[in-house]
Design brief:
single chain; 153 residues; alpha+beta; Alpha-D-Glucose-1,6-Bisphosphate, Chain A, domain 4; 7-stranded antiparallel sheet; 39% strand; globular
Length: 153
């Protein structure tokens, strides 16, 4: 007998009957910074280690339409640029090699009354990696808040 994938919840409101088996991590946070300035840093794909999350990321090298980032814990990932939409202030990227069978993420900036809101969504398989990736994302958020708000001051 084949093992059934772990169910993360059925979506019934739109009559979708399939269970989601992919982990989806959502980090949403406010920044006391102008959305234009935050977007300018986020969209600078090759400078993420300097302008967005220094300390969390220690290096970044561009390779064609990808960046190879080195994390403070020594992990190295090749992130393929999927989309950079200036109108929506949305950047999407994917990791196509490594420990995950699927990894797709997007970062989007929304104007708010006193700054902006950042929404970072990561979808990944296998879903049992969600705990480790969530922990890393939390460290990334802390670095982004520190860096992007400091630049705004």
């Amino acid at each position: 007998m084949q093992a059934m994938p772990k169910k993360r919840g059925l979506h019934r409101s739109g009559e979708c009957t399939l269970a989601a088996i992919m982990a989806s991590i959502r980090k949403e946070f406010q920044l006391a910074a102008r959305p234009e300035d935050v977007w300018d840093a986020i969209r600078d794909f090759g400078a993420v280690h300097q302008r967005v999350a220094p300390g969390f990321l220690t290096d970044c090298k561009l390779e064609s339409n990808a960046r190879v980032v080195t994390f403070a814990n020594g992990l190295v990932a090749r992130e393929l640029l999927v989309d950079c939409d200036d109108r929506l202030r949305r950047l999407a990227y994917a990791i196509t090699e490594g420990r995950t069978a699927h990894y797709n993420a997007s970062v989007q900036i929304f104007p708010e009354k006193d700054g902006c809101r950042v929404v970072w969504i990561i979808d990944l398989l296998p879903d049992d990696m969600a705990g480790a990736i969530t922990g890393m994302a939390e460290m990334g958020v802390a670095a982004m808040k520190k860096t992007l708000e400091r630049r705004a001051a």
